[in-house]
Amino acid sequence: MGSWHIIFTLGIFLAAGLLSGTLGELFRLPKVTAYLLMGVILGPALLDLVPHKHIEELEPLTDLAMALVLFGLGNHFTLSRLRRLFHRVLPLSLSEILATFFIVYVGLLLVGESGSAAILLGALAIATAPATTILVLREMESEGPISEYTGILVALNNLASIIAFEVIFVAVLFFKGDSQGGSVFSGLAHLSMDIFGSIFIGVFGGFMISYGSSIIKGSRRIIMFVGLISLALGLCRTMELPYMLTFLAMGFTVANSLAEEEVPKVEKELYPLTGFLCVLFFIIHGVELKPKQFMEAGLIGGGYIAFRLLGKYFGILVPARMRGEEPEVSQWLGTTLFAQAGAAIALSAIAVGRDEVLGTHLQTIILGSVVFFEIVGPIMIRQSVLRAGEVPLINAIHHTAGDPISEFQSMVRRFLVSFGLLSEIDQPPDQILVEQLYRKNVKGISQTATFNEVISFIEHSHDNTFPVLGPNEEVVGVIRYQDLSNTLFDPKIGSLVRAADLANNLETVVYPDDSLARVWAKFREGSYDCLPVVAREQPHRMLGIIRRWEILKYYIKGHRSAQSNDSK
């Protein structure tokens, strides 16, 4: 194709990113999916506008994008958070990993795949695309157990996939007679060095970032962050180490060695650069997708897709129901793990170098299925957090699915809004109901919870008002953060006081059929930052919460839109 300068290609990608992001909002697609589709259009599958050598030359930027996303993911893994969640997430993770592996392995054997390829594809099926998954959750501003569990599951999936693939590949080569007995041990030793070496680099780099953050201030901090991350990435690439583990370990180290209030600042400072590079990452990734390979994968490729979907979904559904997890978790958590790309592609490329025939076959299946998983995966992630009620009010309004006619009407309305011919808020507040807007997947505090359990709940909450629930999940009162100011410093009451003793009488509740205008009036009457949404029938079972700031944000957006129309 053309021989223009690589900067021109970079400009094409950025312009395409702007256009696809806008189209994604217009047609209610996750931006990640829109970027990927735009990349497919620009790539050899359709327009073939981009010189292939430019894709190779821009690869360091896509690696840096992945490193920043993984670093940000690791930043959320504080030890206190892991201790709180691990006993709940670990059984789900083990079940999902094993179910995915065995369903893919056995299923592919049944459709005629060879044993060696089937077992390796089972290991590859475990991997989940971290950049795709985390960026869709961030775009949706989702919050709740599904969003929280997903980050941990993604990290564990990729760790398990890398280890399982390497161990199984050594065994496959040994039983095929392509290795001497001693090579099995050398292969396992090489795997151990890869894992511990990559983690060591990450931990060391994390300590360097934490130390540097305490002595370097101002705009120089971003130079330090990017410099250390780039050094670690370059070292991993030079030594051929799995850098995904490096940056998870680096983020984890920073989260647990830096002052708690400083950790969000690190992520905030890196966020603009991460967002910029991720646009390039997904556009370039889309260019590299080859829909033709989806057809070339044939029956085995179709089976791999179907069996992997079944493994992810039922691997979460069954244990979640057995353990009594919330219905939303059992139904929607598995579908957030469908996306697959980076780790599986990298491992299949390694397989080609070790056994060209077997590796090429694996690579064909993976590259073909990635076309499906990277397009459908982000859509399923978005739908999962929407259906589970973990998306803020302002996003839920603009992302709730409808029928084709209403979708077309909404598209025309948004087009008119962009020209200032229509208000951005298409429904007056007295016509919008709470049932359309509130966060559903939210917990309260049991009235029998001890004072220490109440404090633990508050530590991991974003609110200042906390519903207290009775035995039938009915709201019996609320605890306000400011009401605890005198008791927080009295260590004697930790084991004596219960949540019911701290709760205030419930003065105000919200019902699903209340209008937004009515709810806002209730907020103006009191000082609550959020209100519980309860069922009208007795007892008033808690359904979720609605927050003051989210409604205010909605009103401000409508006010700005009205001002814009008036000025015209």
From TrEMBL:
Gene3D superfamilies reported in the protein's UniProt record: 1.20.1530.20, CBS-domain
Keywords: CBS domain, Membrane, Transmembrane, Transmembrane helix
Family matches, as PROSITE patterns: CBS (PS51371)
Keyword flag Nucleus: no
Listed GO MF terms: antiporter activity
GO biological process, one term: proton transmembrane transport
Chief place of localization: membrane
Any one annotated GO CC term: membrane
UniProt keyword Transmembrane helix present: yes
Ranges that cross the membrane: 6-27, 34-52, 64-82, 89-111, 117-137, 149-175, 195-216, 223-250, 270-287, 299-320, 332-352, 364-381
Span of domain CBS: 503-561
One Pfam match: CBS
Topology relative to the membrane: Multi-pass membrane protein
Cellular location(s): Membrane
Name this polypeptide is given: Putative voltage-gated ClC-type chloride channel ClcB
Lineage: Bacteria, Pseudomonadati, Planctomycetota, Planctomycetia, Planctomycetales
